[in-house]
Amino acid sequence: MSFYYFRYVGQTAPKTQAVIDSAMGGVLFIDEAYALVQQPNSSTKDVFGEEALTVLLDNMELHRDELVIILAGYDAHMEALLDTNPGLRSRFPNVLQFEDFTAEENGAILNEMLADAGYTVSPDPETRAGLADKVAMATERGSGNARTMRNLVDKLVQCHARRVAETDPANSEMILEDVVQAELPFKIAVPPNPKIGFH
Description:
Radius of gyration: 22 Å
Number of strands: 6
Structural class: alpha/beta
Distance between the termini: 44 Å
Strand order of the largest sheet: 1-2-6-3
Order of helices and strands: HEHEHHEHEHHEHE
């Protein structure tokens, strides 16, 4: 038997309150918080998100000594969020901004992800150089974060699997052929100011 659930205005407040109550005495971390009031590149407001935000603001005032709330997201979108409600900016006076990872840092992340997945990279200098170039391209195309590297790892694993599927399925070494075949068709939408920050 299938059940269908519908969202109605008025249902959001108690669900939001339950989440806040579960975080009481600790930290409530809301990633991509700008999505509460408006989807990026959209002029449509989210009434459910606004309802959640109202409950959040009320609790921030009532429980200021019992709860830390962190809103996170891309800088430009977070600025737009703070402008949607006059009480938001004053309640989030502390802002931390983080620079995107460099190609070198992304390379270290990629190597760790590959190792965690049970893969090794050939010590061949051409393979290593090709992989470094691919990481640099992905970093430029993306926003310099770990999600970009996860997408690249997925592509590398797919290319590797195609290469070894019939001949040597136990082989876990990435070689130049895998790196060359790992095209970067994934596009990552980069906002005008892609820095990630916390408010």
